[in-house]
Amino acid sequence: MSPDNQRLQNIRRSPSFAIFTITTSIAVIGIVIGLSIPMVALRLNNYGVGELYIGIISAAPALGMFLIAPVVQRIVQWCGKRKAMLAATVISAISLLPLLSSLPLWLLFPLRLITGLASGVLICLGETWINELSSENKRGRILAIYTTVFTVSQLLGPSFIAYYGVEDKSPLLICTLIHLISVALFLLMDQKIGDRIAKTASKSHFSILQFVKVAPGICAGIVFFAFFDGTILSMFPIYGMGMGHTEAVAALMISAILAGDAIMQMPFGWLADHMNREKLYRICGVVTLGASILLPVVITNTYLIWLLLFVLGATAGAIYTIALVQIGQYFKGNELIIANAAAAMLWGLGNLSGPLLAGVATTISPLGLPVLLILGAAVFLWFTREKYSAQVTVQATP
Predict the structure, then answer these.
(1) What are 97-153's pLDDT values in tens digits?
(2) Which of 329, 350, 46, 355 shows the shortest CA–CA distance to 226?
(3) Which tens digits make up the pLDDT trace of 22-36?
(4) Helical H runs in the chain?
């Protein structure tokens, strides 16, 4: 083998290239989520569809994530992580193509469900694989990069909507075509570490329910952020327009929240590597609760609202990053796969309930959305108490 071929082979097999490939795939999915969910919601709103039905359609991707999570381990046993993620990328691209034309309302739900199934595979396996390839002393920063890329890619979606408008097909076409980048990288990657589940996996008694039992604090953080993410992406534009803002400004408000999430995850990742993670987790919850309480007060303030949305996105996003770091800290091997499958399932549950509850709450009161965020943050803080810490419960489990 020539030196150039050997160098290429070494790159294909390196953990760094695998992490880059996985992160790129999650960037593609982030753009899919950040663009398609608010775009479909705003289109339906323009067509006069009710908030409740918009919430149901917006919840379909999350339902797909919820449904696929329990079978992800079997998928990996069958074909390995790389092939599973490659197939999910192709399915995600195909599921977006019908959105380029006008569709009957009854067809939207199954299409969005398929997108969610593919996204669930990529998110679950991506988070598992990156945790397996990360060293403990760098896990916070590596996962912060991962979540930052995910958030930045989500941020591009509302920005595209603000620039092109909700009826333009160009953003969806671009979103579909960029899947090809991820496909090419997965075809090139040759990473054996962590690709397959060990043969002893079938003998493991660790389950999704066991994960929820031993790590309720981590679970609460995942559910809260998924709830927050689904609510913000699907219903915040409707809330913003209801408070008197234009469609473009309401879409940019989502971008402000996602910008706070994206810009601040590296600093929070560094903190997670250098201070007590449970304490940092709790601080982020307190700030998120405070920002949610202030939201209806400053929503009409031309200047303060942008700072508040930035802070809200930063601390809410950090809750998710720190939860992922703790999963990699306390779970290894096959238990890590099951823990991330549980996390994906919980993500689907939170992301599913967010748009549905926000749809109902918005029909009841204009303040329905901020009230939901306040309640969600308060429940999360309840589960940050020491007795729900993974450090305590994992050590107590025989």
Answers:
(1) 888 877 777 788 899 999 999 998 998 888 888 888 877 777 888 888 888 888 788
(2) 350
(3) 999 999 998 988 888
(4) 3-13, 15-46, 51-68, 72-79, 81-96, 105-133, 139-164, 170-177, 179-188, 208-214, 216-242, 247-274, 277-298, 304-330, 333-364, 368-382, 390-396
